[in-house]
Structures are given as structure tokens and as C-alpha cells.
Specification:
Oligomer: single chain
Number of helices: 10
Largest sheet: 4 strands, parallel
Distance between the termini: 8 Å
Shape: globular
Radius of gyration: 18 Å
């Protein structure tokens, strides 16, 4: 199986480049390509395909991307699939998933596709493994981290920053948006090699594992 993995930003791409070999095996039969976009964006009105070069955000491009993959995959001897990984942010999970499925349903032909939504942000996947956080920054706050059963609360990256970044989220905000992006990439590099895949308490991370394993099971 070959996977085309679409993600909304560079830090997400860094995380997936580390996680995919751990999940699928680096010497196994599966291959993948991770493609990062310039933010999540929004689905175009009427879910119309938008392939204009200025539409560089993931959701803006998604209708044309999925249709393109549907055409490219048709008749190929090697099984191929698309995996879309993005943050939920403040959206309603049920409505957002319905919107993504509506984009896929209008493709002719439809590519095999899995939608993996990090609730609310990719940083919730890191919060799902306190032992990994302790290896990066041992602290009383991390030791007291409760099981992550509800990911729907806003501010997961801020919560993570307050636990493991000197000065916390406030210090990062003072440095500006580019500093936040760079730090998210550092967290991906530090934490993704340490995450215990099966022990992770993040429901959306476990769903991500389930989607990957379902797609590659055949």
C-alpha cells in the first residue's frame, strides 16, 4: 500500500515523518509521501474544486486534490490511498467530518481516503502520553497530568507549552507566531520518537492509528 499523507503545516509533517515508520514499519511493504500545506484554510463555497496556485491551504485545495488522486489511482496495480490529517480547532467534529465526506462523495472516481482529525490540535497527541513529556521535561505539573479523555477543550498547545516550555505559553506568544511554529516543530522532533503508540490516551491519536492500520491491512 502507498499512502499520500496530506497535512496542514510543517510541524505536522515533521510529526508524521517520525510516526509513520514507527506505525507501519520502515522496512515493510508500505510506502508513503507526506505533503505539508500552508495552513488549514477552509473548504471552498459549494465544495468546488480550486486548483489555483494561490490556494495553498489544505482545505482550500482539498476538492481538487481528492479528485486528482481519484483519477491518478484509477487502474493502478499498487493499492494507494489518501490520508488527510488536520486539526479540528473550534469546529464541530460531526459537522466537519460530514463536510469532508461530502467532498469525497462528489469525486468520480473516489480515491480510498481516511480523514484523521486531531482534537482540538495535534498537541493533544503529545498530552496523551505523560511519560514521554516527563522524558523531555520532568516536572510536578507533568506528573499530575490527568488521563486525556476529553480533547475538545481549546488550548492544547498552550497547555503543553505551560508544562514543558520555559516561560510557558505566555513567553511563546511574546515571541510571535513564527516562534510558536518553530517550537511546535521542536516538540514534534522531541516527542514523536518517545510516544508509546498503544499507551497513548489521546482518543484522536488512537483513531489515527486505527485508520492507518485499516487502510494497510489488506
Amino acid at each position: 500500500m502507498h499512502l499520500e499523507v496530506l497535512v496542514e503545516d510543517a510541524s505536522g509533517a515533521t510529526a508524521l515523518e517520525i510516526l509513520l515508520p514507527r506505525i507501519l514499519g520502515s522496512d515493510g511493504p508500505h510506502t508513503w509521501q507526506v505533503i505539508a500545506y500552508k495552513g488549514i484554510g477552509r473548504l471552498p463555497p459549494g465544495l468546488r474544486a480550486n486548483s489555483h496556485p494561490s490556494a495553498r491551504a489544505l482545505l482550500n485545495r482539498l476538492p481538487s486534490l481528492l479528485q486528482g488522486y481519484g483519477n491518478a489511482f484509477a487502474g493502478q496495480a499498487v493499492a494507494q490511498a489518501v490520508v488527510v490529517v488536520c486539526d479540528l480547532d473550534r469546529r464541530c467534529l460531526k459537522e466537519f467530518r460530514n463536510e469532508l465526506n461530502a467532498v469525497l462523495s462528489q469525486c468520480r472516481p473516489q480515491p480510498t481516503t481516511g480523514f484523521c482529525i486531531a482534537v482540538q490540535e495535534l498537541e493533544s497527541w503529545y498530552l496523551g502520553d505523560p511519560q514521554a513529556l516527563l522524558q523531555v521535561r520532568p516536572s510536578r505539573t507533568v506528573r499530575k497530568l490527568k488521563p486525556l479523555r476529553d480533547e475538545t477543550v481549546d488550548g492544547n498547545w498552550e497547555r503543553l507549552a505551560d508544562m514543558i516550555h520555559p516561560g510557558g505559553a505566555a513567553a511563546l506568544r511574546n515571541e510571535g507566531v513564527h516562534a510558536i511554529g518553530r517550537q511546535k516543530q521542536v516538540w514534534a522532533e522531541q516527542l514523536c520518537p518517545l510516544l508509546d503508540l498503544e499507551r497513548n490516551r489521546s482518543p484522536s491519536f488512537q483513531y489515527f492509528l486505527t485508520v492507518l492500520r485499516r487502510l494497510t491491512a489488506g
